[in-house]
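does this look right to u?? magnesium ion version
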Amino acid sequence: MTGGVRAVCLDVDDTLVAHTASARAALHLLLGHDNAWSLWAQITDEQVTRVVAGEVDSDTMRWQRTQEFFSCLGEFIDAAEAIRREDIRVRAMRAGWDLFDDTLPCLEWLRAAGVRIAVVTNASGSYQRGKLANLGMAEFIDGVIIAGELGAAKPDPVIFHTACALLGVHPGQVAHIGDRLDLDAIGARDAGLRGVWLNRTEPVQGELPHGISVISSLAELPELLVCDLDLVVS
Ligand SMILES: [Mg+2]
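got this back:
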């Protein structure tokens, strides 16, 4: 261990941005019902894995995902129709993107405290940068690591170590905060960072895994960093 925390990494979707709500509403708009969300989420996970592995580019993946999704629902559509439907879905989703109420106050506190900030996302493409800019977060962020561009996704230590190198700090001096216990908090811990689970919704059952901290809101992060994680302000 090399002392206290000097920088933070933050997940994006469902940590800073209410992503699932907007993505689910957009799919509902496209289909007229909400019955296929789990299928969409499963296909998305599989398709994003292909992008991270370098098997397909992000733009191609998007229409192929839509084509596969409708095929699973029993409807064959050609590439042009898949692109059209994906365009409708993405426009609706982007219109619905919203920050959580605690996001900007947390980023403002971190910036005021002199803490360097990277975002580390398992998303497939550069549209994540547009999301950060459009929602007013870009000015707070020193670095953006996108799994689809790097070729490694959380919980692979490569993505966490890339973020630490970008921030110019040792992994032991970085806290990573995200909504997924497995991909974010445990992944970060196993890569040598401080793993923080942002659990906005579920009551915690049983004991937390060793070395993991939990918060229920980003509003709790400053106190955690100062008291428990020994924040070092440069
Ligand atoms: Mg997330």
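The chain has a mean pLDDT of 93. idk if thats expected tbh
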